[in-house]
Amino acid sequence: MIPITSELGILHPQEGVLNGHYQPGDFAKARKIKQLQNGVSLSVNAARLTPSKTGTFKVGDLITGYGTAMSVEHFYTVWGGDLTQKRVIIQGWGNVASGAAYYLSQMGAKVVGIIDKVGGLMKPEGFTLEEVTTLFNTKEGNALSAPQMLSFEEANRQIWSMGAEVFIPAAASRLVNRMQLAQMLDNGLEVISSGANVPFADEEIFYGPIAELADSKCAVIPDFISNCGMARVFGYLMQEDAIVEDEAIFEDVSTTIHNALRDVYAIDNQPNLITFKAYTNALKLLI
Fold first, then answer.
1. Which of 112, 175, 97 lies closest to 142, judged by CA?
2. Could you give the number of structural domains in the chain?
3. Is 46 exposed, middle or buried (0-12, 13-18, 19+ CB in 10 A)?
4. 175 with 201: CB under 8 angstroms?
5. What are residue 200's DSSP bridge partners?
6. Is residue 67 part of a domain?
7. DSSP-derived pairing of the beta strands 110-116 and 119-122
8. How far apart, in whole angstroms, are the C-alpha atoms of residue 164 and residue 160?
9. Whole domain around residue 171: which residue ranges?
10. Which in 13, 38, 165, 224 has the greatest CB count within 10 A?
């Protein structure tokens, strides 16, 4: 979780945004900082939003994985398709990856494969929501932990060609190579929702050749949309009328992602070059 303030008095990015963008007075600034602190560290008590007993996790623990999952649901809502008929491969098992897997499974999607740095699991018929929830709650730190787990080498050899419509790269950046992408595309890949900041193994930061290939062949939801959860929480909590409740915070993130995808759809309704069109929209807003 990113700290909002420091005992040493260091100016953190959130405080810099308050001073530079909102320019509040001292009283308003103190209120907004308190609102940020309370919101990010707020316990998640809504049963539908937490994979463990209520109050176990904070908003900051779950919101990015939730946003990544919601970006997939909203993609199929906007462009068409039944998420309950889609198979999902997850890369990584930290908060973002495991959270996305939990929420997608809750929505009815079938998580069929998980690959982590320590190994992997594959189940072509899909893990149940109960199984995914157990895997979430039994991870060791940010690592997958399960009986009869495949070695990383074995999982890496099999998982990319097992077949899935949805791929969530949510491990370290720059891991997805051209061969892995090609194998997934050959086996039904439709959507990539970027849980990692830079998922593709390109030297370029934003839009290298692998990213461009993926964007042209399937729907690639860029990280600044799919991975915007925490940033959006900060933006939401800086509003004067923000409701500091878990349901309201999660709903705001969902709505923001949905609106961003609707803006892309408004350019044209083709389900490819989504990243290119999203960057175009973002640059227009900046100019």
1. 97
2. 1
3. exposed
4. yes
5. 176
6. yes
7. antiparallel
8. 9
9. 62-226
10. 165
88 in Cβ contact with 109 (< 8 Å): yes
Contact predicate 172/87, CB 8 Å: no
- What Rg do the C-alpha atoms of the chain give, in angstroms? 19
The CA angle 214-219-221, to the nearest 5 degrees, is 95
- Cα distances (Å, whole numbers) of residue 145 to 91, 97, 194, 255: 14, 14, 23, 33
Percent share of the chain, pLDDT over 90:
80
Q: Is residue 54 part of a domain?
A: no
What b-and-e string marks burial along 159-187, b requiring 16 or more CB atoms within 10 Å of the CB? bbebbbbbbbbbbebbbbeeebbbebbee
For the stretch 106-141, pLDDT in tens is 999 999 999 999 999 999 999 999 999 999 999 999
Q: Domain with 119 in it: what CATH number?
A: 3.40.50.720
Buried b (16+ CB within 10 A) or exposed e, 191-212: bbbbbbebbbbbeeeeeeebbb
Beta-carbon count within 10 A of 245 CB: 14
Which DSSP state fits 161? Answer: G
- Evaluate whether residue 277 is within a structural domain: no
User: pLDDT tens digit string along 19-53?
Assistant: 544 455 567 788 888 889 899 999 999 999 999 98
Q: Rounded to the nearest 10 degrees, how much is the dihedral formed by the CA atoms of 193, 195, 201, 205?
A: 100
In a domain, 39, yes or no: no
Give Cα separations from 92 to 84, 115, 141, 148, 193 (angstroms).
Answer: 22, 6, 12, 18, 13
The secondary element (H helix, E strand) that includes residue 284 is helix 274-286
Two tokens at 241? Answer: 């009328």
Is the pLDDT score of 88 beyond 80? yes
pTM listed for this prediction: 0.89
Indicate the residue type of 178: R
> HSE (CB half, 13 Å, CA atoms) of 25?
1
